[in-house]
Specification:
single chain; 149 residues; mainly alpha; 3 helices; elongated; MYO5B protein; coiled coil
Amino acid sequence: PVLRLLEAQLQDQRREHEEEMEALKNQVDLMQEELEKQHQAFLQTLQLAPEVQVELGLQQEITRLTNENLDLKELLEKLEKNEKKLKKQLKIYMKKVQDFEASQTMVPVERRLHEQNMQVAVQRKEKDFQGMLEYYKEDEPLLIRNLIT
C-alpha cells in the first residue's frame, strides 16, 4: 500500500513536471518568435537611410511616451477617485469623533446633575418635616377622619 501511494505521488509529480516543461517550451518558442521579429525589424531599419532610422526611432519613442502618458493618466484618475473617497470617509469619521467628544463632555454634566439630584434627595430624606402633609383633595375627608380617631 505504501509503495503504491509513493508510485502514485511520483507519477503525479512527473505529470506536473512534464506539463510545466511543456508550458515553458511554449513560452520559449513564443519568445524566440518575438526575438526573430525584432531582429528582422532591426535589420530592415539598418538598411534604411540614417534619416529614416532617426524618424522611425522618434516614432517609436513617441508611441512609447504616448502609451506611458495614457497609463499615467489612468493612474492619476484612480488616485483622484481614491482621494475623494478617502476625504468623504475622513469627513464621516471627523463627524463621529465630534459627536463622541460632545457626548463625552455631556456625560460629566449629566453626572453632575444626577449627583446634585441625589444630594437633594438625600437632603430631603434627612430633614424631618413637621406639620406638613401632602395629600389629594378627594382624600381629605378620609384623612380628617383618621386624624380624629
